Amino acid sequence: MRVLAVLEAFAVITIIIAVGAVVGRTGVLGDNARMVLNRVAFHVGVPALLLLSLADSTPSQVFSLPLLVSAVATLMMFGAYFAIATAVLRRRRSEAGIGAWAASWVNSGNLGIPLSAYVLGSTTEVSVLIVFQTVVLVPLGVAIINSDGRDGGSVRSQLKDFLTNPIIIASAIGMTLAMTGITLPRAIHEPLDLLADLAIPTVLLAFGMALVTRTERHGEDHRVDLVLAVVSKVLLMPALAFVLARWVFSAPAEQVAVITVLAALPSAQNLNTYAEVFGRGQSLARDATLVTTIASVPVIAIIAALMGL
Hints:
Blueprint: H1 2-26, H2 33-55, H3 59-62, H4 65-88, H5 93-104, H6 112-120, H7 124-147, H8 155-163, H9 166-180, H10 186-196, H11 199-211, H12 219-248, H13 253-263, H14 270-278, H15 282-306
Helix pairs in contact: 1-6, 1-11, 1-15, 2-9, 2-10, 2-11, 2-14, 4-5, 4-7, 4-12, 4-13, 5-7, 5-12, 5-15, 7-8, 7-9, 12-13, 12-15, 14-15
């Protein structure tokens, strides 16, 4: 039953991605449609979604054991990939940052939420994970990418880019509302709800269009980065999360299962939006999200079966 729930959750996003691929192949939206969709997601949909996700959370939900374990596993995997990419593969910081995101940033929104509802029976844990990724992981990656700007950029300009990033602004506002307990009035919350609804479909449609768009490949070097990112995300991260939850933090069995499943989620589709907007690692982002999405289906199904979810 749980295996079917996993497949159902993946089917939801697969259909929308397929629609995007058809739209991209036919070209009915024009040559710049993918960039427009990505910019709508980056500047409008995703900020609204994250602001509301953070604003509607509580401090007790944010500071929990599952979040702590997930945060440690995420940062360890991000750091491990980034270190290998920069020190061993000799990649630029911006490209290594995209790869590190692919290896550690889980698809907690458009896939994690339905999967949690169907398989785990609760969306609390994945909502908290969205909070952490929004407040910590996204700013960390953005800062790394901005530090490796096209023209080098001054520290002042890099700081300005960081502080004016719509994702950062929305996250800061949402976290402030969560910590202060201030509730958004209905007149503001409902329009933000409508804008937030743009986030998931625009990201998935743009991703589907990217699959049928010819872009320059990076040959063997790109394949090495891709393999490292996929293995890190689909296999190493859930294994690391399991070890940390069970033997380091001594979490209850139910929480160990939840933490492991969340860690096995594929790379976030939002990664493609960031890669497109910043003009870095587009091929790696696209291929990593596609391959990890496919590979994570049997992995999550096996984890759910073995842990009795």
